[in-house]
Structure formats: structure tokens, C-alpha cells
Records
---
Amino acid sequence: MWQRPQHLLSRAVKHYDVLIIEEPIFKPGITPHMDLSDRPQGVTIAVPMLPEGLAHEDVVAEQHDLIEKLIGREASKTRVFWYYTPMALAFSSDLECDLCIYDNMDELSLFRGASQELLSLENDLFSRADLVFTGGMSLYEAKRNRHRSVHAFPSSIDFNHFSKARGVKQDPADQAQIPYPRLGFFGVIDERLDVDLVAQVAELRPDWQFVMIGPVVKIDPASLPQRPNLHWLGGKSYDELPQYLSGWNIGVMPFALNEATKFISPTKTPEFLAAGVPVVSTAITDVVRPYGEKGLVEIARSVEELVEKAELILARPRESWLAKVDRHLAAGSWDKTWASMHKLMLDVTGDTVADRPASSLPVYATTPAE
């Protein structure tokens, strides 16, 4: 997945050395070690490789030892820790850093299978963090009183990448034979997606084709509804997405309204819009505000209303809507988001951009695997 962490930390390399520590991979009979690899964006990925069968406390201890060996307990120069999950605090809390950031992109405690440790570790992380960023306004409102310096940075947009969909003329091979009209979704397919809603709409409109792109996570793939007009195409690379979106009449965001979606701010909302694809979404708070209120996205609160809003989109001209979309999207970008975050970081440390040469400060980021 190429999402918020990748967008931000690939931009951080302009100012910092970036090491991303991922969740461990378990294999039988191996000696614990750190698998290091460099990515084209300029970041280094570190994956703890651990033997299968370890107890939970041993998994934590091994991760701690591998990270300490890699970066040292004490910082030899200014060091920043950038957290995406409080669970990483369990194996890094005694390591020294000069600036601690919690980029809170989801309410992880409400996700299926969330650890009971997570809430207490998040309390500890709030105590330790110098800055807290949130991935949306509803999450900001929920967390703003838990820390002295909480800042909302909703999902932004790589406009140049997704706007390629407006000019692409050739369907990918696995989409080329799917008839029109096409309604498409891309993203992780997990408990946040209302697959029953998708199935009901597909049944009501058998002449509409639903193209579903993304990896299936935390739910049984066999539980996905099957119909002639439902096409589960699996995961695709970030680079491939504009080509798929170019062949869709409508983008659908059929999120369930449950605990796991209470505070989400879907990155795909502005991505659909940049691609020039009209969107109908369920009533996710951070989609209703501002996209629904501004008339950029249609909001549906039932199966029947989703069908009604989709029919409205299929019948209306796009020109005035697209002009309104472009005016809205012009106000933001991941570059602007990173620049604003970076300024806050420098304000805390007392530095200025001129004080610090490019690629001189290590940033250690721990991201949940998805």
C-alpha cells in the first residue's frame, strides 16, 4: 500500500536520513536478524526477521535488541522517533531520541484484533510525544485534549499521479472485458468495507459492473460476495491505479459505519477526485465534512440512496463538477502537508531549515504492516 506514511516519509528524505522499521516476519529455525533494504525514494527499510514460536515477551525483547544494535541506545547525533503505532513503544521506550512524534492516522484500538496493550501504550506515547499529528478532523477532535500539541493533517493528494487517469485511454488486461457502466473501489478490503452493501447494490443493478481492487486482510476471502457483476481483481501497484481508475464511471466508497471507521479519513477520497472520477460514499464523518458538504462527493445512507446517487452521477454532466473539484484540490498537496509538519518539528527543536543541511538527521519510523 502507498498511503500516508509512504507519502510523508518519502518527502522527509529531503531533510533527514530515514529508516523505517516494519513489523517482524517469522520464519522457522532462523537466527534473529534485521533485514535491511534501500528503496528508490531514498528510505531504508528494516524488517526484524524472527524464528517462529516465540512467546510475545520474547518477540518484544528480540525486536528491542535488534533495533538497539542497529541504531544504539544513545543517539550520537540529533535523533527523531516517528511512531505510527503505540505498540512500537514496547520495544523502543528506553532508546534515546531528541524529538518524538506520533502520527495518529487511525483509531487503532477500534480495529479488529487490536491488542489490549494498545490503549495503555498510547497513553505512554502521548506522555512522551513532543508533537501529535492526526490523519483527519474527527480524529483530531477526539484526541485534541489528550496532548498539549495536537495538529490535524487530513489526507492530502498526489495530484500529478492520479490526474493521469484523465488522459489514459487503454484498459488494463483484466479490466478490458468488463462492460460499462463501471463502479470501482480500491483499497484494503477488510472489516471497514461493507461487503453486504456492495452485494445488495450489485443485486439491485445487475447491469452495473463493480470493480473491486485491493488486498483482502483480516477477513476470509471466501466470505466475499460473488455475483456475475462483482469483479474482485486483487491488489494492484500504486503506479497501476490511474490506468484502472480511467475506466470507471463512478468511484464507490462503501465503508461500513462501525467502530473501525468512526475516525477514518480515507486517502482515496481526494485520489478519486484527482482522477476525475465522481464518488458516492457512505456517511463517513471525514468524507461528509468537507467533501459532501461542498458537493464534491455524493453521500448515501442506505442501499437505495446509493443507487439513487449513482444514477444521478451517471446522468449529470461533469464539467462544472470537475471545475469545482480542481479548485478544492489546488489548496492542498502532500508537499504542503510535509512542509507544515516539518516547520512544527523545527519549532520544537529550535532549529530553522537553514540550520540543518539536507539528509543530516535520522528519522526512525515504525509503521503497522498492511
---
Amino acid sequence: MKVADRSFRNRQESLSAESRTTSPAIVGVGTSVPGTSYSQRELLDIFGITDPRVRSIFLNSAIDRRALTLPPPLPDGSMPVETQGQLLAKHVTSGVALGRQAVEACLGESGATLADVRYLCCVTSTGLLTPGFSALLIKELGIDRHCARLDVVGMGCNAGLNGLTSVASWAAAHPGELALMVCIEACSAAYVMDGTMRSAVVNSLFGDGSAAVAVIAPPAPGAAPAAWTAPAGPALLRFSSCIVPEASAAMRYDWDDVQGKFSFYLDPDIPYVVGAHAELSLDRLLDGTGLNRSDISHWVIHSGGKKVVDSVRVNLGLTRKDVRHTTGVLRDHGNLSSGSFLFSYQRLAAEACAEPGEFGVLMTMGPGSTIELALVGW
């Protein structure tokens, strides 16, 4: 055996042993989108967009279709302008429905039931509400009233990994007990149709959807067996964060006095900001593990947009195959905000291509500006 091969095998066996005995693992994932889906051309027609600059943004986005919850057209065929109150109501009603579907799909895959859920973390950035989605879903689904919960609100597209960090920590502190995270993003509840290029970029990109993930840590030695047997899944080995304070205003959700609504803003330079910090962030994640970038077999990256994905891919030296699930989700659903990476992970899991002993990286990006990463091991 070559020295290099033996060195990797040693690193592989060391982290694999850790994952088998102590680390929380992903044991199920479920996703949902609204039943109404639109092509980019259909959306241009629905909203009567004729500006060639805006049409070019929609049609060159690497997005084919997006599921959205839109109001019925007016008698003259035009699209009504939704008030902020109507948008917030949509955030709640659509969010609860999507979240419920994602949770049920996730539990179905993991073989668990609602009675097994001990911790619920809900993540959203497309509206404000109190009580949060965790309380609403516990009521909607009939989850035990003593279920611990957390709501992560307003962190943006990176927030799925911020939430998963807390979920993994809770699961590690409660071996053998099931924790769920649900990302709920009714992005159409954050739309402003004002004809500006600022809004056009946002409106060309985001789609509605929800994703749930089930996490559990191995039971403590000598503990009573759990009521159900969790399927095998990748262990969550470590997390890492990188914030770029000088780009804090590059992605933001703020109030538009003219429109009387909240409005999302994306700086045109954000793909390059993210790309420029991707290598630094990855090195931080792998520092001390003994792993090199070449040891990573699987990549699950947030579908932030064509330029964002391309910038990350180039800066990390990834192939198009490495990001195939990321670009596939972008093509079929658009940017689903905090839950996008779980849609990509679901596609990776469906391939059943990950082998025992292999490693993967989960990566999300969002306001802050922020890059979040997780190292997983099969």
C-alpha cells in the first residue's frame, strides 16, 4: 500500500469510528413544494413583464420551473398586488401546510412516528410570526406538548445549517432521542412587484418549499433500546462558520417605505464575495481532522443561483458532477432559501452512491454575509 493511501485510510478509520459510536446522524429527509409550478416564461407572462433586461434575468437564470403560491388573477387577467398583510397570511398558511408535508415525508423515510419526536427546530426567513412555526406545527401535527423546540427566524439561506448545528447538539446531549429540523420557506410571501432591477433579481430566483431532516445520536451504552430502529445515515462530525462583516449589507431583508412591504436585496457582487471566502471556510472545517479537500467524495451545496454556484465550484476546484444535485435543484425549483441544501441531499441519498468510510461536505451561504459548513461521514 502506498504511503498516501495508508495515510488516508488511517484518517478515514479514525473519523469513521467516531461517527459510529458518538456522533448524531441524519436518518431521514423529506421535502414538499406547492402543487402549482411555473416556468420562467409563464411567470413573465403572468406578471406582464416586457422589459427586455428583466426578461433576460429570468431566462438566463439556469432555472426551468419554480413552485409558487400565487393569488388568483383578477377578472381582467392581471395579477393582483398583495398587501403586506396578505403576504404574511400566506407565509403562515402555506408554511404550515408545506412544513406538515415535509415532516410527514421525513418521518415516513426514517420509520419514526410523531410520537417519537422529542425536539423540533423550525427555520424560516420569509415572514414574521409569533408564536413561531414550531408551536404551530406541534398543534397541527399533534406532537407531544413537552417536545423541546426552537425557532430560527430571519437568518436567510444559510440558516438550515445554523439550525442543524443546534439540532445535532441537542441530539448529542440526548442519545437515542429523535430531533427534527424543518426549513419552511414560502418565498412568494416575500415578493415585491415594483418593476425595479432590485426586485427583478429576487423575483427571478426564489421558489416555495419546505424540507425536514431527522437526526438521532446512538443510544448510550447499556441504555434501553429505542421504540424504533433508526436507519443508517451519515454522521454529523463537525460544523464551521465564516462571516464576512464587511459585506453585511450585501444580502438583506428590509422595509420598503414606497411599497409598504418588506423587500429582499441581493448585491450583484455577492457571488464573488462568497466564492472568495469558500476556500478559507472549507480549510477551517477540515482543520485538525487530517482530511484534505481531495478526501471529500460528496458535496451538497446551497442552490443560491447560477453565479453563486459557479463561483464556489471554481474557487474550490469542484467538477460539474460534484455539484450536479445543487444545479438540478436550482433548475427544478429555483432557490428554496434555507431548505435548498436538503433538497440536494435528498437527491444524493436517493442515488445510494455514498460508501462506508466516505466523507461529504454540506455548505450553505446567506446574509451576514455568511458561509456555513458541515462535515459528514458515512
---
Amino acid sequence: MVLTPLLVGPLAACSGGGNGTTPPHSIDAGRLVHTSAAGDTDPGKPFTVTAQGGGTLTDVTLSGPDGKQVAGALDPDGHGWHSTTPLLPATHYTARIAAADGRGGRGQTTADFTTKAADKTLTVTLGPDLGRDTYGVGEPLTAELSEPISDPAVRQQVEKALTVTSTPAVTGAWYWVDDKNLHFRPKDYWPTGAKVKLEWTGQGLEIDDHGTYGGPATDVAFTVGDRVEAVVDAASDQLTFKRNGAVVNTIPVTTGKPGFDTRNGIKVVLGQERSVQMKSETIGIAQGSSEAYDLNVEWATRVTWSGEYVHAAPWSVASQGVANVSHGCTGMSTDNAKWFYQNTRIGDIVQVVNSKGRQMEPFGNGFGDWNVSWDDWLKGSALGKPVSTDAPPEAAQAAATLRPQF
């Protein structure tokens, strides 16, 4: 740490004719103030400035290498100042301090210091991150951590530093899928037209007592489109397409035949492909067997990572609306598949009912998040409670708590 005095030049003053006041004069402010800066400054602790010898602080600014100021607060008596947001590890800072000695003396000084490096940095990758502006009402928010976290108290700190805001506001909660992955969803689907933003605000936050600090701030934002819900009834072999609650199309379909029954439950559109090559080996059907296939499929809307789609199946038109003959996908005519493709976006809902297949997996094979009851979803949160997306950001409160106690 380098403390450098900046002497203020003499100030012009009129003679008061012996009124007893001391005219302003320059002082060595470096002798009047003390800072917490050191060669190994802990970024998890607040940077502090204290005026000594009856002096007061008149102005303090703390800036990083990019010139951006760090938030801070002056004590009511003017004798102390402290930063109110965490510093970054391995970062150079400059404090500019102005002080007065109470006897007409004023001066300025600077303090330069570099924080010590973190043993580990927790970076966070947020989703969705598919380069789109609009998503469907079922799209969950995701956060992937660079380091596994199992400690319940540390998980709480992470949740508080993941800020979700939306207009209009909703009630939602985080769910820990595993030690490195979290999902956030509202209690109900996102409202149509909602503006949603997810931010990681734990930059510089001391995550644990083992030298782990929060990595760079990041965010994602999107708009929610129409409420699109496609309900596939495997018993009647009909797909009912609803937009904002109104039925706009009914399409004859075929779903998985016995042994390849389509998964029941709510799924979220993951992506769309104008054409895709589908091979039976990818789902465990040996090449050359009676069930083997190798097809170029058009207008394919994906709903699971394992290969379940809603797609064109011109070879089964005679069975569509009548019988289930597919290997698990929902097949329809080429014209109907094109229409479905063009009227659907990532994040829209596809729900399968009355199938003899197993239930859609909650995690790992797409977004089955909506198949988890709200009560069970809350059990997956480290905070154990819902949050409102219009509440004051808890992340800001967490950031102000510079050294969480575990």
C-alpha cells in the first residue's frame, strides 16, 4: 500500500478584522487518516478509512482499474468510511481521500493497494443463452456453477446472489438439481409478455471460508411470448394446440407404440431443426434389427435430449389419429408438422397425457421441471421458501454481508 499526500494550495480569504477564526490552510492529509489497505488486503473484508487526531473525512472515493467507483458509506460523525460491496481478488484499487483537521486545515491523499488472489473463483454460467429475445412460458432459468457446493449455508449465499426480476412480478424459487446446477421457475408458467432478467451479483463475494470468491457479474434477459400449450392425447391420438387459452388447432398424431411408449408429462421445447437425421442406434435399437431405421426427418421440434421430437412422419399418415406406431416421437403429416414448427418456439409447453409410457424425467433429459409439485420444488431450495421477483434484490444484501458466518 502506498499512501501519497496531495497538498491543497493556499485558499484566498478576506481578513475578518480579528474575528478569531483560523484561515484555511493546507495540511498533509496522509498524517491525518489511516486505511486498512495492506499488501495482502482481503477482498472479503470492507476497505476502511479512519480520520485521526480529531479530524474528519470530507470525501472518499475508491476505484478499480476500470475507473468504476466502489460503493461506500461515510459514518455519521465523519470520522470513518467503509466500502459496502465486496472487492475483487487480485485487483488494484486507488482510494482518494479528502480530510479536514478541524482547525482550518484541509488536504487530500491517495492510497493504492492490491487485493490478494483467491484460492478459487466461483464463476456462474446463466441460461437460457441461445441468442434469442423471446421464449415460451415454460422456459426455466438455469445457473451452472464452476465449483460444486454442498454446504447448505453456502448454497443459501449463492441463491441470494442469483437475482431474478420480472415485470410483472411472479412468485418463484430455485431448485438445486445437483451440487453445480440450479433451476429457477415460477409457481405457475411465466405470464405472457413478461420481461425477465437473471443476474449473478456475487462478484467478489466471499463464498466460503476456504478462499473461494464470486467471479464476474453476468446476466441474461428475455421476453415471454404467447402462452402456447400443445396437449398430446396418446389415447385419442389427437394434439390440441392452445394459444393463450384458446384452441387454435387440432392435429391427428401418432405416438409411441407398445415397447416404445411416449413419456407422459409436461415437456418444454428445447430446439427446432428444419431437418434432422434420425438413427435407431441412438436410442438403443441395433442396426439391422426389425425396428431399425435411418430417416431424414423434417420440421422437427425437440422436447427431450434423448431424441423425442414432434415431427413430420409422412410414412404413418394412415395411422395418425387412429393408432400409435412410432418409436416414441409424436408424428404428424408434413403440412401439420410445418405448421406446428412455425407456431412454436423454445420454451413452449408440450404435454403428453394418457400414454402407457413412463413419466418425463424432472431433470437431465430436458426440462421436466413442471412435473415437480410446487411443495416439492420448494424443498429443493437452500432458502426453503419462495421469492418474489419484484422484491428488493437479496443479492445486494448478501453482497453487503462481506464475510458470511457459517
